[in-house]
Amino acid sequence: MSRIRTLQDLDDVIALADRPRPVPILPLETGGVDPLGLRQLNFDMMDRCIPGLNNAAWRLRPYVVMAWAWWQAARLAERAGLQSLPVPVGRRFTDRIEVIFQTGQLMAGDFSSLPGVEGLQARVVAKQGYDFSTPEWEDWHLRRRDQGSLMSPVSYGPSVKEGLGMGFLRSSGGLFAPVDEVMPAVLALDARLAPALGHEAFASLECGWVPLDLMVDWHPLWDMRDLTPAEAEVGRLALVGSGGVSPRARIVELVGSILGAATGPLDTGQLRLLAARSDREWSEWPTARLWRAMQTRQLMRLSLEGLLNWVLAMASDRPVTLDELVDWLLEALGASPDLPFGEWLDRRDRGDEGDDAVVSPVALLDAIEGSRQWDDPALCASGLRAAIAICRAMDEAEDLFAGQPDRLPLTRLSARFRSAAGLPMRDACELIVSELLIGQHVYWAVGRSGDDTQRLRIVLDEGGWIALRGAGQSNPTPDRLYTLLELASDCGIVDQADGGYVSPAARTGGGTA
User: Fold this and answer.
1) Which residues have CB under 8 Å from 219's CB, separation 6+?
2) DSSP state of 24
3) What are the residues facing 454 on neighbouring strands?
4) What is the pLDDT of residues 125-172, one digit of tens each?
5) Range of 23-37, 260-274, 352-366 with top mean pLDDT
6) HEC letters along 320-385
7) Nearest to 361, CA basis, from 395, 398, 387, 334
8) Coil, strand, or helix at residue 461?
9) Which of 49, 128, 150, 492 has a Cα-to-Cα distance from 250 of 20 to 30 A?
């Protein structure tokens, strides 16, 4: 098999074969989370709406803890007479501070947004403490940099550094130091930690055994729910800036307007939906239009992935022809084969509460997410139709709906559907199945091959298309709104009440906008 590089090589080997023989298992792992290549445009739009944050890092105190830890490490190096802080020493110290902080939060039952629970449970909690002077610590703290540390790429690491994120730390030669603007928060936390600063865990660059009981006792000193005014103010400036012109500041302003018009607390889902509606006083704000376009792009992506899940389900038991898939889709849509595609596109869908889906794209997005997509192609198709209608209602704005052509931006899809408006529905269903689902999937699955990952989910076999993998369930790409709201709450920009958010001046009871 190692000699086979081309189809001619394969033909030659087969011609010489005189008996069946086993072949090696293909060294491919099943994978691929973006079957149609549509998600990058979603990420790009989220970077325009809420840049610099991620969905895992939504508490303010960890940012301050990391800044304090690097500041303290530099102070201890200076006290020890070192000309500079050695990078390995600085990292061991700051990682130790993280472990003590995270363990305290874990034991207090407030570990949300923090990484590394399994390692802490097995290495610290189970042993009733930890020895930070052993070779095991040297190995663990290095491995924590990728997963488990607050500084890891999947946690607070990207947003804590200078740039588009919260920007608490600047880097230099493998070391970090707090930026000048966050020093009031660092000094406020230092004052809070005063009762513990005499212990070698905080007062020495190197440390030995630290009992679990002490980590628990220190927890109230840096409880994530008990921020100082200085931390809240530094966090507010880091989140929205001082001029109110950053993208995050504009989204916070939009949220504030929605909360101001509400008669009670609103949760993340309600705020997401209201910000995307087209019939409110804020709907024509540039930020609201961008938010609405992003949710519309989410709706389009989820609708097409849901339809792909349906195709995979229909092709799971046996090969099915394109004609069969088209007939089944047409039947599911309840449309006449001769109905002009343009007439079908012009139909309006209603949400669970009677809302026009074009007015309320998030309601339809939620409905598709909560459905069994492999069993409800009509609902997924209605999402695709609504996304096109919203794009057109917003004048197909290039700055909102354009993008790389092969990632199927809504402007391109709208133009393709406009050119197909006169087709009968049966031909339009063939276009959807062959071009938008199977063709788009095969293009991206094959184009991304070469890294030992099997991304292809459906292939053409004798008798038709057959699924290599069963149908899945697609979900919207998390849009960072929850992160923004939680950080805004920590910073005092919004308040929390009854499981939702309210304006700081309005802490009233139930009801919604």
Assistant:
1) 104, 105, 107, 108
2) P
3) 30
4) 999 999 999 999 999 999 998 889 999 999 999 999 998 899 999 999
5) 260-274
6) ECHHHHHHHHHHHHCCCCCCEHHHHHCCCCECCCCCECCCCHHHHHHHHHHCCHHHCHHHHHHHHH
7) 387
8) strand
9) 150
How many residues are there in the chain? Answer: 513
Amino acid letter, residue 475: N
Within 10 angstroms of residue 165's Cβ, the number of other Cβ atoms is: 21
Amino acid of residue 292: R
> How many whole angstroms separate alpha carbon 175 and alpha carbon 146?
16
Tokens describing residue 470: 């069963």
Rounded to the nearest 5 percent, the helix, strand and coil shares of the chain are 55, 10, 40
Q: Could you tell me where the DSSP H helices lie in 394-493?
A: 398-401, 410-419, 425-431, 440-447, 481-490
311 Cβ partners below 8 Å, 6+ apart? Answer: 325, 433, 437, 438, 458, 465, 467
C-alpha triplet 405, 332, 338: angle, nearest 5° = 80
Amino acid at 81: G
Structure tokens at 288: 């609201």
Q: Which residues contact 216 (CB under 8 A, 6 or more apart)?
A: 104, 107, 108
User: Is the per-residue pLDDT at 512 higher than 50?
Assistant: no
Judged against a pLDDT cut of 60, whether residue 398 lies above it is answered with yes
Tokens of 104: 């305290």
